Amino acid sequence: MGSRLEHGFIWVMLGTLVSRGLMLCSTVVVARILGVEAYGEVEIIQSTIGMLGVFAGFGLGLTAT
After folding, report:
1. Which of 21, 28, 57 is nearest to 43 (CA)?
2. pTM of the predicted protein model
3. For the chain, where are the alpha helices, taking DSSP H only?
4. Contact between 18 and 10 (Cβ < 8 Å)
5. Mind listing the pLDDT tens digit of every residue in the chain (65 residues)?
């Protein structure tokens, strides 16, 4: 059981690191393509969507409970 848990944990951590690394690379590429002002607009939209996702998650957690 412990070995399976350790194996799963390693895969989750590896997947998270790869995902965040790719997100960092894509963010740099998009920022260079769009420029400062347009990239700022994109980030405002992304942060707003992220905030709304947090609020939606609160409702789902409460419903699941």
Report:
1. 28
2. 0.64
3. 2-34, 36-64
4. no
5. 778 888 999 999 999 999 999 999 999 999 999 999 999 999 999 999 999 988 877 777 667 77
CB 39 within 8 A of CB 30: yes
* Cβ within 8 Å of residue 39, ≥6 positions away: 30, 31
Amino acid in the structure at residue 44: I
Residue 1 is given by DSSP the state: -
* Torsion of the alpha carbons at 53, 58, 61 and 65, rounded to the nearest 10: -160
- For 35, phi then psi, to 5°, come to 95, 175
